Amino acid sequence: MEKIALTFKNQDVLKDCSWSVQTGDRVGLVGANGGGKTTQLRVLYGELEPDSGDIVKSSADLRLAFLRQEFVDDLVLTRTLKEELMSVFGEEAKVLSEIEEAENELSQCKDDMEKMQTILDRMQELQNKADSMGVTGLDARVERIMNLMGFSPEEGDQLVAAFSGGWKMRIGLGKILLTEPNILLLDEPTNHLDLESIEWMESFLINQNIPMVIVSHDREFLDRVCTKIVDCEQGVTNTYDGNYSRFLKLKKERMEAWQKSYDNQMKKVKAEKDWINRFKVGAQASQAASRQAKLEKWMASEEFFRFPSAPRMGNAEAVVNVKNLEHGYEMQGKEILFKDVEFNLEKGDRVALIGPNGCGKSTFLRLIVGKEEPRSGEIKLGGGMNLAVNYYEQNQADVLDPEMTVLEVIKEASDGSVEYEEIRKLLGQFLFKGDTVEKKIAMLSGGEKARVALCRMMLRPANLLVLDEPTNHLDIPAKEMLEEALKFYDGTLLVISHDRYFVSQVANIIAAFEDKKLVRYNGDYKHYMDQNEKWAKQVESRYVDGLEGIQELVLPEVEIDKPKKTKNFGGSAVTSGRKDKGVKNAKRMQ
């Protein structure tokens, strides 16, 4: 493919897009959610037609393969690995089925020589067709792909459901490679992957000779894989030769302007708060109250996103108390996921669960919120009768009704308890303004769906947020918006994320699954790295040139309904450390 030039009429998504992918190119599409990145992949793949412009191909029979964000939904979990890979060959399977039917007919044909000859002629035609399609070599092709993806021959008979998220990614990638494409289209391929799986994918893609176009919000992944960056901004694309680091350098002035604007905004908030606190008592108390109201109104505007204040809880010491927990799934070939887990979550704690794919992080959250029953052990939720839990599942956005509009989804979730003006203001905070609220869910990008799901969650105040991979599909500005909102959240947080920078910005306690145990580190992600020198070196080796790495967490002063602690709970292998102390607030830059 030599050139892409697209112009979409009557949409604010794509206005003037022109870029190319050629032999040897690994193109990264970057930009804010809603900028049309996934739309461009769909146009390339032939799912959408541009209103104007041209897609110029170097060959009429150019074969494109598309690994979608939601590729896991297309996997049939009850198939074996080999059956799932073979499912790619639909036409070939149909021919084989017709040959088998003809053979059955022939076996039932006795003295009718004319009918027998007709069947034999049809079998010959089908066999010729099968030979031209290379049907006899399908098993060998599947075995080669299994080996390329790192699967052993014995794993070919295991069910797809037995594999973790990282290995399911390999299955999805293997399926599209079996189609022998000329160009790969990859939409957020690192979602749900741990660092080991991401590094495997990086190495795999770099060693392929196939040109590819990649949509990803993982800057480190883009930096290592891509040879060209296409920046999609307000419907216009600009191409930068080189990796993500070089792209950042070329946009340095704009990033500095963005940072300056943010810093000025935060200075304004701090200065106003300082004045209010100084004069809230005394002769200027009424003026201070007025300025407080104006500040709150401004911070509640579309420039800020804040979670509702956490409802007050009872006097229970622990929000969540876990004792001797053990769980596993026989169907996964893993008798035990984790065992002997001891875990306390107290009011105001901000805990990030980390660990490799398949270690049981999401399962642990489902056990906490009662979606599953543990094999053994005890889970108690405290807080008296006032515990209110908001649970954001890993695939929360997938349960949205595709035929409903953004506005309809939020109005339904509000159940008539929120005025229309407040709903529109809330949607504005999530960047749904003007006519965009009338867009159907089916037409949204993965990031837009994620924002709708988060927006819906905002309608119910909670004092315990349980979030499973909330940053999946979110672009960099949206991640920053969520980071800041969680910093100001005055409740208790339990979150899973493979985004190490995000974790470093919101969690003051790290709970890591290590050797089927849950190990608690009483400190932020920087403290966790300080305790794990080998891991720290691996993380630091992936830093993007020109961007600040993991720093100590700095949290704003937020009043939390929290009783005085009577003890410091441990769990296995507890380490001590600072929970809130820090000196810098590094911002993620686009």
From TrEMBL:
Cellular localisation: Plastid, Chloroplast
Domain ABC transporter: 1-259, 320-547
Keywords: ATP-binding, Coiled coil, Nucleotide-binding, Repeat
SMART domains registered for this protein in UniProt: AAA (SM00382)
An example Gene Ontology molecular-function term: nucleic acid binding
Principal location listed in the UniProt entry: plastid
Cellular component GO terms held in the UniProt record: chloroplast
One Pfam short name: ABC_tran_Xtn
InterPro entries assigned to the protein according to its UniProt record, in alphabetical order: AAA+_ATPase, ABC_tran_Xtn, ABC_transporter-like_ATP-bd, ABC_transporter-like_CS, ABCF_ATPase, P-loop_NTPase
Coiled-coil region(s): 92-129
Region (Disordered) location: 563-590
Similarity field: Belongs to the ABC transporter superfamily. ABCF family. EF3 (TC 3.A.1.121) subfamily.
Protein name per the record: ABC transporter domain-containing protein
